[in-house]
Amino acid sequence: MAKKSRKTGAPAASSAPPKPTCLKCGFISSLPQNKREPPPSRLKALLSTNATLLEAEKTSFQKAKEDLPLVISDLDERITQTQQLLCALMEERAQAAIDLRNAKAVLHPMRALPDDILGEIFQYSTPTWDEMADAARRFTYHDSLNPKSGPWLLAQICRNWRSVVLSMPLLWSCISLDFNVYFKQMDRPKDVALQLAIHLQRARRSPLSIRIESGSDINLHSAFPIVLSSMSQWRHLHIRTPVSSFHELARCKAFLESLEEVQIDASLFPIHTQDIATFQMASNLRRLELYEHGHFYGHNLHLGWGQLTHLFAQIDCDGIFRYFKELKNLVSLRLSFSSGIRKFDVLSRRITLPKVQYLSLRRRGSANAANAVNTVAGVFDMLDLPSLRMLVFAATEADGGPMLLDLPSSLSHPYRQLDVVSLKYPKYDLTIPANRSRFLDILSQVSDVTQLSLDVQNIGADVIQKLTPTDDVNFFPRLNTINFNRSTFAVPQSDVQDMLNARKKFADASTGGGLVELRTN
User: Fold this and answer.
1) What three-state secondary structure class fits 385?
2) What is the pLDDT at residue 516?
3) From CA 68, how far away is CA 66, in angstroms rounded?
4) 288/67 Cα distance (integer angstroms)
5) Which helix (H) or strand (E) holds 118?
6) What's CA 2's distance to the chain center, in Å?
7) Average pLDDT in the 170-187 region?
8) Which of 32, 35, 398, 420 makes an SS bond possible with 427, Cβ 3.0 to 4.6 Å?
């Protein structure tokens, strides 16, 4: 039988599978249709030895040697095409994502908000007076002249936002000036002065809440005249500067007729006595906060003490008490004092403050140390407060070992009825007999309160029993709110809940009882 002739010069047939093509769009799929079979076990044996190949095996491997380069070349081409397709798809997807983001941006409800709603939102981007003053007390500073924050930043977003921001003087009326930063920019002091002038211009004639922070005399900076020009608009002021800056501001003291609140941090004041008359003519000053650091009350602070209605004083000596006889219109008094080594001296006479309705006494430091001479009880006994309605006793620092409550023995006054009482001694343990006795004694004297706030450790059954009304005894007939804050209990939580349920049952709406509210933090 004659052998079939074999064409010479023709390339060997490729074993690469054909590429599937879509008849509609012509898309050529690069996905392999058939996976290559794994190598036979015979190949693994051959690779691990030097055994001679059989003739059939030799033919098979020779064919693979001839065909596989073409297969690999075809796969390389398909990989290249697939990579190019992937890059094109990734670019197309990225552009589609950009188009989607742009579509969402132009359709965002923020673009359709009326200007008055935008203005309300913008007000939350600038600190309030309370936030700014609190930050200053914690020595965290906000610079209102920073172009990357507050209304300066909002005015750079778009034309509409800029128009809204510039039409709202209120956004520019709370100003925090950190001259410690400005003195470091002495290469361009005129820029600071110009920016401050622009800021004040945008505030127009709005009342200003201003914070001034400087470790150096602010009158040495070129922006100081701009500060002076705004004094007639000051309503609130927090200031921490050397005393010489106070003297420079005093030259324009007649312009402080709008000033209502002043907070003074005197940590940079000198020891030797000086007269401070900066606020002597501030006829509308009603609120004063003083943060003393050792010797501030040795200075003579001239102002209308008799017109004050709210006073906070952080004190380490008794110098502040010489002004108390003038506080005839004071309604709120908060004192934060050190237990100290020197007893407060008020010439052994009680100070009468006829209109004070709110009193807060907060002791710093140990009441148990051998050199501690000032206590909450001692300071309270120095004061005669016939109109007192709200009372806070607190200790802000804890010591090692057992700590004894320094509560006064008597709160009685013939013309006084307390409505709110707060006892904040978060580290003090009521399982100590002396503490439990003093605590129960205080509770016995405040039976007419409507709100009671407690922050102590290990509140026991005797306290819970006193708070629980029965058919025979309701010791707190007007009590409608109890706040246990961070207190812990020496009784099961169910006992506390039973007390609350009993108070709800016996609440008398006609006397202000209503629904009892229990709060815990």
Assistant:
1) coil
2) 52
3) 6
4) 96
5) helix 115-122
6) 100
7) 86
8) 398
Residue of 414, 416, 424 whose CA lies nearest to 390: 416
Other C-beta atoms closer than 10 Å to the C-beta of 276 total: 20
Per-residue DSSP letter, 297:
G
* DSSP classification of residue 18: P
Q: Which residue has the tokens 């209102």?
A: 144
| Whether residue 287 has pLDDT greater than 70 | yes
DSSP letter at 60?
H
User: At 418, is the secondary structure helix, strand, or coil?
Assistant: coil
- Asked whether the beta carbons of 173 and 208 are under 8 A apart, the reply is yes
Percentage helix, strand, coil for the chain under 3-state DSSP, each rounded to 5: 40, 15, 45
Place of tokens 């009304």: 469
Q: Which two tokens stand for residue 116?
A: 């008055």
State how far the alpha carbon of 188 is from the alpha carbons of 32, 143, 177, 183, 213, in Å.
Answer: 70, 17, 16, 10, 19
Per-residue DSSP letter, 21: B
C-alpha distance across the termini of the chain, in Å = 105
Instruction: Identify which of 267-276, 290-299, 358-367 has the greatest average pLDDT.
Output: 358-367
> Both tokens of residue 442?
């205080």
Sign of CA dihedral 458, 461, 462, 465: positive
| Nearest CA-CA partner of 238 in 214, 262, 266 | 262
Q: Which residues pair with 333 in a beta bridge?
A: 311, 359
Task: Tell me the C-alpha distance between 144 and 151, whole Å.
Answer: 9
CA angle 95, 99, 103 (to 5 degrees): 170
Q: How far is Cα 184 from Cα 217, in angstroms, rounded to an integer? A: 14
**pLDDT for residue 421:** 94
Ordered DSSP codes for 125-177: GS--HHHHHHHHHTT----TT-TTSHHHHHTTT-HHHHHHHHT-GGGGSEEEE
Rounded to whole angstroms, how far apart are CA atoms 505 and 285?
47
Most confident option among 93-102, 182-191, 319-328: 93-102
Q: CA distances (Å), 93 to each of 79, 102, 104, 304, 427, in order?
A: 20, 14, 16, 71, 61
For residues 225 and 49, give the distance between their C-alpha atoms in angstroms, rounded to a whole number. Answer: 97
Helix axes 115-122, 159-166, angle to 10 degrees: 70
Among 240, 109, 103, smallest CA distance to 176 is for: 240
What value does the mean pLDDT take over residues 77-98?
A: 94
The residue ranges of DSSP E strands in 322-466, in sequence order, are 332-338, 351-352, 358-364, 383-384, 390-395, 420-429, 451-457
Lookup result for tokens 């229990």: 518
Structure tokens at 323: 């002004």
Nearest-angstrom CA–CA distance, 66 and 14? 9
pTM score: 0.75
Residue 13 above 60 pLDDT?
Answer: no
DSSP annotation of 16 reads P
d(CA 75, CA 72): 5
